[in-house]
Specification:
Blueprint lengths: L6 E6 L20 E2 L3 E2 L2 H9 L4 E5 L5 H7 L13 E5 L3 E2 L2 E2 L5 H6 L2 H6 L4 E6 L2 E3 L3 H11 L3 E7 L9 E5 L5 E6 L8 E10 H12 L8 H11 L4 E5 L4 E3 L3 H9 L28 E2 L4 E3 L2 E2 L4 E2 L2 E3 L2 E2 L4 E2 L4 E3 L2 E2 L4 E2 L4 E3 L1 E3 L4 E2 L4 E3 L9 E3 L4 E2 L10 E2 L9
Parallel strand pairs: 1-4, 1-8, 4-5, 10-14, 16-19, 17-20, 18-21, 19-22, 20-23, 21-24, 22-25, 23-26, 24-27, 25-28, 26-29, 27-30, 28-31, 30-32
Antiparallel strand pairs: 2-3, 6-7, 8-13, 9-15, 10-13, 11-12, 11-13
Length: 400
Amino acid sequence: MIKKKECVAMLLAGGQGSRLYALTGKNAKPAVPFGGKYRIIDFPLSNCINSGVDTVGVLTQYQPLILNDYIGNGLPWDLDRAYGGVKILPPYQRQGSADWYKGTANAIYQNIGFIERYDADYVLILSGDHIYKMDYDAMLRFHKEKGADCTIAVINVPIEEASRFGIMSADGDGRIYDFEEKPKQPKSTLASMGIYVFSKEKLVSYLTDDENDPNSFNDFGKNVIPKMLADGQKMFAYPFSGYWKDVGTISSLWESNMDLLGKNPVLNLNDTTWRIFSRHETRPPQYISADAQVVDSLATDGCEIYGTVIHSVLGSGVKVMPGAVVRDSVIMSDVVIGEGAEVSYCILDSGVTVGKNAKIGKENAGSGKVTVAAAGIAFADGTVTGEGQMITENVKGDNE
């Protein structure tokens, strides 16, 4: 017999991440590497276990192979449980139908059986593509104290960015009285973080109604939340003031990696009170030669640095050869940067090879002009690229 769980988390991790272009060509967005030794999904998974939420369904769809392999049995996050733990929930063929997940609401609807299996009173719905540290248990307590049907985590954003988010207005007690998904003329700066707590019975009722509506997009922001609000359900905004970043674009992913650097980083991963866990390979210690220079950077296990690295994040097994310079860049695992090469304002995916004396990216290009190289490609010796390029094929030299 399955024992009761007060709260079950449902982590939406099936997104294509099309705005990350080459980085998600063969990889789901939540599995994109981050910060040298992590992947994006490490943050919500770590938040769950740090918050005491030990039953997590991970809903996958787009390019799930790497993500499924990475999560595995959940051991790195202490989610390898005989009862509860982490479970991968792909779309599946049911009696009479076989559908892909048609939207965020439909994805949860197709997995109501998982929620009911644990007889949960509350359902925590999360996105798998945000970087942040958050105590979900505090949000759940807020939900219960307010007697809410739905609680939405919110963060204040600049008014010029508000049209990118679901925007809501709330009274002095936090009760939501207006909500609009990605409005052209936002009425406030309270933005939804895509983190919800629902009372289970209310969620199941509204998901069922939404599924039976042929005109619905089957989406929380477009359909379920507005319908609950229109029906007068008790909906509250839970204010969050910590670090949070939607890393759905090249510039935001680069910026969030840069936020890990500095004496007092904007996002501190050295916080022992709220650790971010990951699954990572066993590699030898990093090696920094006597002639190397490493300034304000992160270098992960297995790196060999003989050149210069400035204000950059290096994944495992990266080699920076003599005379090479890496600045303001995110270098993922097993990249080799040849002698005399320069890499500036770049994101180089795993396994990229940069030839001798190549110049990739442009110094001082800025976050809006980051050059990206897809996994496994090679730049010939002497290659020169401009700023802000998306490179998906090998770049040959003039004599090739």
